[in-house]
Amino acid sequence: MEERIITCIVCPMGCRLNVEAENDKIGNISGNRCSRGKTYAAEECTAPKRMLTTTVRVSGGIHPFLPVKTERAIPKGLIRQCMEEIRSVQVSAPVKAGDIIVKNICGTGVDIIATRSIPCQN
Amino acid sequence: MNYDVAIIGAGVTGAFIARELSRYDLKACLLEKEADVAMGTTKANSAIVHAGYDAKHGTLKSKLNVRGNQMMERISRELDVPFKKTGSLVLAFSEHDLATIKDLYENGLKNGVPGLRLLNAEEVIRLEPNVNPNILGALYAPSAGIVCPYELAIGAVENAVDNGVDLKLECEVRDIRCTGDIFELITGKGAIRSNYVVNASGLQADIISSMVQETEFSIRPRKGEYLLMDKTMGNMVNTVIFQPPTRMGKGILVTPTVDGNLLTGPTAEDVDDRDDVSTSPSGMRRIMEEAKKLVPNLGFRDVITSFAGLRAAPDTGDFVIEASRKVKGFINAAGIESPGLTAAPAIGEYVLELLKEQGLALKPKDNFNPIRKSIVHFRDLNDNDRNELIRKNPMYGSIVCRCETVTEGEIVDSIRRPAGAKNLDAVKRRTRAGMGRCQGGFCTPRVVDILSRELGIPPEEVTKKGLGSNILLGKRG
Amino acid sequence: MLKVDLAVIGGGPAGLAAALEARKNGIENILIIEREKELGGILQQCIHNGFGLHYFGEELTGPEYAERFVEQVKKEGIAYKTSTMVLDIRPDRTITAVNSTDGLIKISAACIILAMGCRERTRGTLNIPGDRPAGIFTAGTAQRFVNMEGYMPGKKVVILGSGDIGLIMARRLTLEGAEVKMVCELLPYSGGLTRNIVQCLEDYNIPLRLSHTVVKIHGKDRLKGVTVAKVDSNRQPIKGTEEYVECDTLLLSVGLIPENELSRGAGIQIDPVTSGPVVDERMATSVEGIFACGNVVHVHDLVDNVTMESITAGRNAAKYILSCKDTRSVGRSIKTVPGHGVRYIVPQRISDLENIEELKLFFRTNDVYRNALVVVHFGQKTLYSAKRQKLAPGEMETVKLKSEALAELVCDTSCDELKVDIEL
Ligand SMILES: Cc1cc2nc3c(=O)[nH]c(=O)nc-3n(C[C@H](O)[C@H](O)[C@H](O)COP(=O)(O)OP(=O)(O)OC[C@H]3O[C@@H](n4cnc5c(N)ncnc54)[C@H](O)[C@@H]3O)c2cc1C
Ligand SMILES: Cc1cc2nc3c(=O)[nH]c(=O)nc-3n(C[C@H](O)[C@H](O)[C@H](O)COP(=O)(O)OP(=O)(O)OC[C@H]3O[C@@H](n4cnc5c(N)ncnc54)[C@H](O)[C@@H]3O)c2cc1C
Ligand code: SF4
User: What would the CATH number be for the domain defined by C122-254?
Assistant: First the structure.
């Protein structure tokens, strides 16, 4: 089995994980300080995922842009495609944190949600 | 439009010539290639109002220096620009230095510099407790002082514009044609016709001069780099502290600035490029080494920025202020190296005399207003005045630059007044927004916003210092 | 003159958490003063995720983290003034602030909590030689332009400094279509969190050049390029390693400095290493009745730590207001001393030994250490010792002393120095 070293990015501890892997088969994982690291390592070797955060235009609000994120991590390879789709989106105030801005972005099954509230101007 | 006088270059020289002219009933214009006034040598120098002991007796430099120094108090009052008569010291560390300052003292007496005194070491330390204790003595010149060089020029231009002079920015003079009695100036913004032309174009003065005549002088750019230190260092010295001069010039000095920072420099290095105001690691190190010889307590930790200026050094060794002997109506105000800032008001008077000799009719205006009011600086007011100001205009209650406590009201004023600011650096020079500790980190987005709103342009078109210096490169996405 | 029990200067996560905790501990008359037009502090522009894992146990973005506190402050009915800048604080706890609607505001506060956060270091402080064109930004300013205002500071970017904001912006600008050419770091290690190196640089194949710096800036109007060079172990550029990199933008991510001009004005003692006020374990400063918390005390990488620290400040401020006991006259005090490998420790002193319940020491190392021991000495005694896989200056470390250790501090009156060492 091949051994890979990856850095866990789930939390700021940034553990160095030793992963034994062969193709899609994951063997022993070590170096993690918590169980989330194990899940991450396995996923990173087979189907890496990332959270995406960006902004969308909002009209009539106290700010011109609304910060948003993917509700869950999405496949890393789809990040740029998702950015493209989000770029064309525009919403109107008011927006509440947690509002769904784009449903099922790029067919990932993951929604884009607002990460803050933006009340109307005045 | 046919002008009586066109002045090329809106540095401090052009500014005071324009202001002098605006006393009279005539049409004058001030042409400047940059997007703001005072963008050349006037922007970056030592800001000293020299007493006048070092210019060699008998030169035009010495005469105009002493006269300019005398005028500065009144000028600063009329134009409402900061001027502090701090006095200056030339320190002596060796017998040789003592002889040098003795010579300076005698030259100064001949030039008519008031109040000069040779001090012993004790007297120096009493005046300046932070200077190198190894000094042997110093030359004290109580009439020396400090100004804000660009504010002096801005004040003079605003006053000139208020009194009817046309200021044309981003208007570079590319050629001059003489047809009969009239000059035609070919500029980036079309042709401008004028009966008289004054060349106050600083580093370009030999080039401009040779557009109309064979020119006998040439200008060599000589770079001077500076380090600016935090306000916490501002009271390290009370006066302007010079090294004894050498053949290369006045050497490195340490001085407070009118804004309360500490300034040290300049280096002296001949360069080829007339635009090269870059700073160098070797220059910075040299300044610090030399400055520490004067004031040992200095260090790089207190430096907030570095900058450089170019001296327009003429090969004649003296100011070249004269009417052309070949082409009537063309006047050079060239080779204005140090103490050009000090001399500027006197140069203004002197050039007027030359114009008169050339036949320009000077009929005083009855409505000339010598008074220019500076931007009201919120940070300098007491509580009552601050409240009054905010009540009248709530924009004075909104702080845009936190380090220098600059309000939105001041920024808007700097944009709207005559010869107003059109870009970020222009706002900065007039209000100090962005000049403090954070060097614009905090206020840049806000000032960009205000400029965009006031000038009616999109934020992407707001520049740092004119054409091609856009701050933002487009919208997202 | 407005009279309040507690004035909180700064409405970022530190100020908000401190105000909420003071309210919880019985303080009614609180005023938060914030210069921005809304509460939330720097978090409002940090749209990326990575906040709150420790405090909320979930991963939030900056605005989400902020909103939780802002909502609570509103629910609690704690008074706040936004778009209001504090200009001056006196040692007698009178505050001068200003805004457009009230004009100058004078406030007399029984107690003050400083929570002004920090500012970014700039190019001037670094003295990079060269021209002065447009196109040089601090990373945080660029972040504000992109995330809040929707403008691109540039298209071809070099980032100087590997602080977290720079790393986050490398990814952000790449996603927005810019080309980030490289991140140069003067030191042989990164100043940012490892996870940010992975997810912001490695994911996008952005090179990280360690032991490199920008030695010259080119371009008169807009930036045209920079010269980068390798540096030696004394951080001096090595001749012959210069390389010209074409770019229109240079982002500086060279660190943050606590914003303490107001604190200095109030006569508060500042630690030259942290650039923040010297505080004790209650977050009390050297001036009676003035507490401080968050980035104004020392720069945090994790907002969760800011929140914890601010809760401490809020609780002790409440205690002070209710008891009116001078925060300085507390008898014996112990100094914390950075030992081998440690750059600084917060708190700098421990002063209320009688009432001490728990003690957390925050510190940063001065170098990268692997598999090293963190040891806390009190005179001859060792109060704490634990192995850490990796210690780096970019990551703040904490040590929590157990009650037995605290008992030692209280009982052994012969010693007044608590020392933290890194042992290999
Ligand atoms: C390092 C240094 C230190 C100094 N220290 C002092 C000091 O302490 N005290 C003192 O009294 N003096 C000092 N001086 C001298 C002083 O700064 C100068 O004498 C003075 O600023 C010169 O002003 P100016 O208007 O002649 O030139 P500038 O300020 O250079 O103005 C010339 C203007 O002409 C414009 N221009 C050029 N070509 C054209 C064109 N073709 N078309 C349109 N516009 C054009 C330029 O853009 C510029 O704005 C110092 C100088 C230097 C360099
Ligand atoms: C760009 C960036 C990225 C970060 N990324 C992460 C991350 O991924 N994960 C994480 O956990 N942490 C992160 N942090 C750290 C965390 O966000 C900060 O430590 C935290 O915001 C500090 O909180 P604070 O309240 O001390 O300061 P701030 O949030 O800066 O708040 C200070 C407030 O005080 C106000 N203020 C200052 N002076 C005055 C005055 N004179 N009058 C009135 N108001 C004033 C300011 O406007 C500001 O709102 C990041 C920080 C930055 C800057
Ligand atoms: S393994 Fe657990 S502790 Fe380590 S970085 Fe990943 S999430 Fe954090």
Answer: 3.50.50.60
Average pLDDT score over residue span B224-239: 92
**Option in C60, C149, C193 nearest A12 (CB):** C193
Report which protein residue has its CA nearest ligand 1's atom 13.
B338
Residue A30 backbone dihedrals phi, psi, to 5 degrees? -140, 165
Among C312, C333, C327, C341, residue whose Cα is nearest residue C418: C333
Q: Determine if ligand 3 sits within 6 Å of the CB of residue A37.
A: yes
Closest Cα in chain C, distance from residue A66 (Å): 8
> C1-119+256-329 maps to which CATH number?
3.50.50.60
Q: Which CATH class is domain A53-114?
A: alpha beta
Would you tell me which CATH number, out of the four given (3.30.70, 1.10.260, 2.60.40, 3.10.590), belongs to the domain C330-424?
2.60.40
Residue whose CA is closest, atom 22 of ligand 2?
C295
Count A/C contacts: CB-CB distance under 8 Å. 79
Q: Which protein residue has the closest C-alpha to ligand 3 atom 3?
A: A33
Q: What is the CA radius of gyration of chain B?
A: 22
B190-199/B253-256 β-pairing = unpaired
pLDDT at C126: 63
In the block, tokens 């003063």 appear at C33
Interchain contact, B398 vs C99, CB within 8 Å? yes
pLDDT of residue A22: 80
Query: C52 CA to chain A: closest CA distance, Å?
Result: 10
Per-residue confidence band for C177, with pLDDT thresholds at 50, 70 and 90? very high
User: According to CATH, where is 3.50.50.60 located in chain B?
Assistant: 1-82+147-218+315-374
Average pLDDT taken over every residue of chain B: 94
Q: Where in chain B is the domain with CATH 3.30.9.10?
A: 83-146+221-312
Q: Using a 6 Å CB cutoff, which residues line ligand 1?
A: B 8-14, 31-34, 39-42, 45-48, 50, 172-173, 200-204, 208, 224, 266, 309-311, 336-342
- Which site among B302, B447, B471 would you substitute to test the C interface, given the most C Cβ atoms closer than 10 Å to its Cβ? B471
A54-57 — which CB contacts under 8 Å span 24+ positions? A54/A83, A54/A86, A54/C47, A54/C175, A55/B476, A55/C47, A55/C147, A55/C150, A56/A86, A56/A89, A56/A90, A56/A91, A56/A101, A56/A112, A57/A89, A57/A90, A57/A91, A57/C150
Task: Find the mean pLDDT for residues C274-296.
Answer: 96
Q: Write the DSSP string, B160-203.
A: HHHTTPEEESS--EEEEEEETTEEEEEETTEEEEEEEEEE--GG
Give one word for C58, left, alpha or beta, with left for phi > 0 and alpha for psi -120 to 50. beta
Sorted by where each begins, the domain ranges of chain C are 1-119+256-329, 122-254, 330-424
- Give me the architecture of the B83-146+221-312 domain, per CATH: 2-Layer Sandwich (3.30)
Instruction: Give pLDDT tens digits for B275-322.
Output: 888 888 889 999 999 999 999 999 888 888 888 999 999 999 999 999
> Model confidence over C287-346: pLDDT tens digits?
999 999 999 999 998 999 999 999 999 999 999 999 977 777 667 889 999 999 999 999
Model confidence, pTM: 0.90
Closest residue in C to B381 (Cα) is C104
| Chain centroid to CA B348 | 14
Of B396, B441, B468, Cβ closest to residue C141: B441
pLDDT one-digit tens code per residue, A47-105: 899 999 999 999 999 999 999 999 999 999 999 999 999 999 999 999 999 999 999 99
Which chain C residue has its CA at the smallest distance from A72's CA? C59
Topology (CATH level 3) of domain B1-82+147-218+315-374: FAD/NAD(P)-binding domain (3.50.50)
> What are the residue ranges of CATH 3.10.530.10 in chain A?
53-114
pLDDT in tens, C131-144: 789 999 999 999 99
Question: Is B441 in Cβ contact with C138 (below 8 Å)?
Answer: yes
pLDDT at B440: 78
Ligand 2 site, residue C115, Cβ cutoff 6 A = yes
Considering the four listed CATH numbers 1.50.40.10, 1.10.10.1100, 3.40.47.10, 2.40.10.10, the one that applies to the domain covering B378-461 is 1.10.10.1100
Q: Does A120 sit in the ligand 3 pocket, CB within 6 Å?
A: no
